[in-house]
């Protein structure tokens, strides 16, 4: 059997807690946004001190931290960049993730020894572009999400000496590689400088609907050949502002993509020789970073050992909130297999965080701040780097007076549960599992 190179598993870190959880649950590296200079302004909890601690922690484990500087700045902002990059370079991140050629040129001139990874924002879709950036001195290209498996393979074959990174899991934009104008148009919040408000997830209302045949209109065509012409209102934030639109009969969440999940094609991506598999989600919770890291850690290790992906990987991704899954443009699909036309509400999954463990007594008793309702008969467990640990709710009691409880009602309550084994509470997530 031929030896398969194991790719890096790269996880999102929206805060230092994200970083700690992702590394504990199997990530080889994390990426974290530099404040005001990456594309997740509202979901970025990192400050300079977090980078210092995070880089030290990762390096102590033989792992990496990539600092994201991938905004595409307007001219007035460029002058401040040199000071920011000087500060970040002192912290010795393992790479900068960047998109803007002008900023890349500044970093190459000032810090030629720091690797630069080309952001997905640069929309790299062919081997010629990869070779160009390699000549400029970059060490890795994060390929555009508009590529098929065949195209990724062709690029890797033509550029064997360049590291190739591909998104493996997470939210998708309808825009080209995330370069979206919808948020800017509706809310004057430019996604390309990190201020996206996820307008593509909003609900839309329609009025003045006119149906026509495919002979009348040449855009969206439903299965029965009918086209709908209407006026569109984003009702949550812009009531009363109507825009002309055309849509098919599936509904009006016309910009709401399902989430990417590459478990069905992961073996192929690894066989292609992709160097890094990236999880999207700096705006998601630390639990999300941990859970998806574990799912893909188990899957990557199994594939590289010649085994099938374990069922636990699929259980994890199907048990946490998502918008449904697709392999997107990696494989051919009908549009209704990649888009959720009918709702912007995520599938809630059947795992819900129900408590935050504050402390554990010498006898094993857990002291818990309740986050979501659970009952003593609920199926509850601790999600840990070693796997799921069942909890027995029979001993549920009010922390304040020790009285037995049938129900932990929700936020504001503190309870105790007896548990015989010692737990690393800093890495354990308490879940209610709804079957």
Automatic annotation (TrEMBL):
InterPro entries given in the database record: Peptidase_U32, Peptidase_U32_C, RNA/ubiquinone_mod_enzymes
Top-level taxon of origin: Bacteria
Cited PROSITE patterns: PEPTIDASE_U32
The protein's name: Putative protease
Domain Peptidase family U32 C-terminal per the UniProt entry, residue ranges: 350-432
A biological-process GO annotation: proteolysis
Gene3D superfamilies, A to Z: Translation factors
GO MF: peptidase activity
This protein's UniProt keywords: Hydrolase, Protease
Annotated family: Belongs to the peptidase U32 family.
Organism: Succinivibrio dextrinosolvens DSM 3072
């Amino acid at each position: 059997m031929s030896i398969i190179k194991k790719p890096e598993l790269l996880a999102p870190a929206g805060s230092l807690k994200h970083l700690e959880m992702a590394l504990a649950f199997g990530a080889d590296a994390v990426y974290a946004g530099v404040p005001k200079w990456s594309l997740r302004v509202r979901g970025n909890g990192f400050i300079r001190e977090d980078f210092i601690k995070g880089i030290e922690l990762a390096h102590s484990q033989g792992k990496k931290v990539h600092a994201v500087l991938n905004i595409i700045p307007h001219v007035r902002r460029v002058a401040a960049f040199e000071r920011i990059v000087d500060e970040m370079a002192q912290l010795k991140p393992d790479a900068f993730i960047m998109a803007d050629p002008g900023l890349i040129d500044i970093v190459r001139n000032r810090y030629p020894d720091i690797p630069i990874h080309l952001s997905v924002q640069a929309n790299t879709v062919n081997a010629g572009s990869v070779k160009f950036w390699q000549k400029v001195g970059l060490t890795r290209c994060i390929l555009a999400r508009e590529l098929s498996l065949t195209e990724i393979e062709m690029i890797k074959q033509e550029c064997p000496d360049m590291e190739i990174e591909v998104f493996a899991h997470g939210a998708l934009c309808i825009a080209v590689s995330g370069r979206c104008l919808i948020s800017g148009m509706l809310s004057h919040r430019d996604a390309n400088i990190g201020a996206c408000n996820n307008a593509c997830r909003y609900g839309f209302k329609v009025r003045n609907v006119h149906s026509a045949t495919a002979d009348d209109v040449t855009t969206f065509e439903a299965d029965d050949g009918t086209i709908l012409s209407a006026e569109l209102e984003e009702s949550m934030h812009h009531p009363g502002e109507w825009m002309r639109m055309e849509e098919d009969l599936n509904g009006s969440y016309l910009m709401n993509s399902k989430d990417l999940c590459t478990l069905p094609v992961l073996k192929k991506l690894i066989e292609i020789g992709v160097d890094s598999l990236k999880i999207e989600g700096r705006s998601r919770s630390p639990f999300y970073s941990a859970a998806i890291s574990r799912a893909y850690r188990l899957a990557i290790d199994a594939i590289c050992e010649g085994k099938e992906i374990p069922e636990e990987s699929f259980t994890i991704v199907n048990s946490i909130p998502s918008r449904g899954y697709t392999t997107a443009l990696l494989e051919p699909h009908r549009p209704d297999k990649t888009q959720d036309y009918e709702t912007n509400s995520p599938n809630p999954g059947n795992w819900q965080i129900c408590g935050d463990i504050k402390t554990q007594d010498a006898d094993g008793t857990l002291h818990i701040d309740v986050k979501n309702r659970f009952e003593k008969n609920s199926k509850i467990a601790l999600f840990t780097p070693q796997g799921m640990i069942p909890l027995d709710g029979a001993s549920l009691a009010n922390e304040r007076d020790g009285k037995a409880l049938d129900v932990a009602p929700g936020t504001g309550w503190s309870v105790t549960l007896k548990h015989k084994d010692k737990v690393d509470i800093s890495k354990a997530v308490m879940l209610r599992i709804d079957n």
